[in-house]
Design a protein that fits this description.
By secondary structure, this protein is α+β, with helices and mostly antiparallel strands. It has one domain: C8orf32 fold (Roll). The protein contains 3 helices and 5 strands. The chain has a 3-stranded antiparallel beta sheet, with helices on one face. Strands 1-2 form a two-stranded parallel ribbon. Helix 1 packs antiparallel against helix 3 and helix 2 packs across helix 3. The chain is globular and about 40 Å long. The two termini are 20 Å apart.
Length: 122
């Protein structure tokens, strides 16, 4: 189920930067209704969906810059330690903002967009 949640948030919710580089913390319901959100909106939606299905989940910080941070969803379930890409404590990270990043895959291992030289955004 965590993989399906990850794919849904990656493919059904369009990524959009925060307007004017100002963090806005929309509720997960609004992100679902609008079908668009930044990394924290997508991560919060993924966490809400996972928790609704009984999967342990949390918003997981990846990096923090001077004005913005990048976050993803982290999931853990019984047996998750054996999932490809799982950390030793069983947490599996899902970056739904990077197009093609599989659940458990580091987004930094996704090939860069040839035209922009940046990660492809979902």
């Amino acid at each position: 189920m965590a993989r399906e949640i990850h794919l849904f948030c990656q493919n059904a919710i369009r990524y959009q930067h925060d307007p004017d580089l100002v963090e806005r913390l929309e509720p997960a319901e609004l992100t679902l209704e609008l079908g668009v959100g930044d990394c924290d909106a997508k991560a919060r939606l993924a966490v809400a969906l996972a928790r609704a299905l009984g999967i342990e989940a949390k918003v997981w910080p990846i990096w923090k810059g001077p004005t913005l941070a990048h976050v993803v969803a982290g999931y853990r379930w019984p047996g998750s330690r054996s999932f490809p890409g799982a950390r030793s404590d069983g947490w599996v990270i899902g970056d739904s903002t990077v197009k093609g990043a599989a659940l458990g895959q580091s987004p930094l291992s996704v090939p860069l967009n040839r035209e922009t030289g940046r990660l492809p955004l979902a």
